[in-house]
Design brief:
By secondary structure, the chain is α/β, with parallel strands linked by helices. It contains 9 helices and 13 strands. The strands form 2 sheets. The chain has a 9-stranded mixed beta sheet, with helices on both faces. The longest helix has 16 residues.
């Protein structure tokens, strides 16, 4: 009898919103997309977020639940509206974002029942975008006090103008023990931190030396990706596919990578699995397409 792989308990913190794409609105927000892909890969995941007490908020909860996820820790904000991002897509499939301010996800609260659940998670995911509000920074710090010391603390850097304040980055970098960013974000980060290294591998090594990250992931779009555990840096070429749009590809990548890192798989296997699912998402519209069963390990 084949032993079933372990299923991990994962918490995602941050924005859930509507991506307003040219063809209509789709569920979005990096933490919501990450939660979706963890769930699609058969992990136990909860999103800690907030929506407005409005029609779009009701619709977003319905859409989230219809995807098989649980909205246990998504609250309603009676003052701020449900988040909206206007998404444009270029001819080569690259998205551009206009993110509306003072959205409900800027004011996330910890709902009743989260304490015992958070105390057993294997990993917590958070992004830099949701940290644009001081309120969320305090809420995340409270949440971190509830999670196990051994849990992975996964920072997905999402540098979206104009929400790239140095104080936000100074807040998030030390909180994480896993860092994911893309090559453009890496360029900005090394400039901010005064790192003089020129190659991606040496820059990753400098970040791990400075912050002690267990894992650093740098995605480079069509140029592939790099993963480093502090001892080995592994390059994975990107799979060649016909791109529809790249929305959510990075979220699928990090979900796969975190799960496989928790499972103790070699970096080469982690990179190959993550690249494969990210490439598939690029062939679909929006960040949360149906994931075929053959991606589940």
């Amino acid at each position: 009898m084949t032993k079933k792989p372990k299923r991990y308990k994962v918490c995602a913190f941050g924005e859930i919103l509507w991506d307003m794409l040219p063809e209509g609105k789709k569920l979005g927000g990096a933490p919501a997309n990450f939660a979706y892909h963890c769930n699609a890969l058969e992990q136990k995941v909860r999103l800690v977020s907030a929506v407005g007490f409005d029609e779009l908020g009701t619709e977003i909860i319905e859409a989230f639940v219809s995807q098989g996820l649980k909205a246990t820790f998504i609250g309603y904000d009676a003052i701020s509206p449900t988040g909206i991002v206007d998404v444009g897509v270029s001819e080569d499939g690259l998205p551009s974002y206009t993110i509306r301010e003072n959205s409900a996800w800027d004011y996330v609260e910890l709902l009743p029942g989260i304490m015992p659940w958070a105390g057993t998670v294997d990993a917590i995911y958070f992004g830099s975008l949701a940290m644009r509000s001081e309120h969320n920074r305090h809420t995340l710090q409270r949440l971190f006090k509830l999670i196990p010391l051994a849990a992975l603390r996964v920072l997905d850097l999402n540098l979206r103008e104009p929400f790239c304040q140095p104080e936000v980055l100074e807040f998030v970098f030390p909180l994480a023990n896993v860092l994911k960013l893309n090559d453009e974000e890496l360029e900005r980060v090394v400039q901010l931190l005064g790192i003089k290294k020129r190659t991606i591998e040496s820059r990753i090594a400098a970040l791990q030396e400075k912050f002690g990250y267990k894992l650093v992931i740098v995605t480079c779009g069509a140029e592939g990706s790099y993963l480093s555990d502090g001892n080995t840096c592994c390059y994975t070429p990107a799979q060649k596919v016909k791109i529809k749009d790249t929305v959510g590809a990075g979220d699928a990548y990090i979900a796969s990578a975190v799960i496989n890192f928790l499972a103790g798989r070699p970096l080469k296997e982690i990179g190959e699995a993550a690249s494969r699912i990210a490439a598939y998402v690029c062939t679909q519209s929006g960040g949360t397409p149906v994931i075929p069963p053959d991606f589940i390990q």
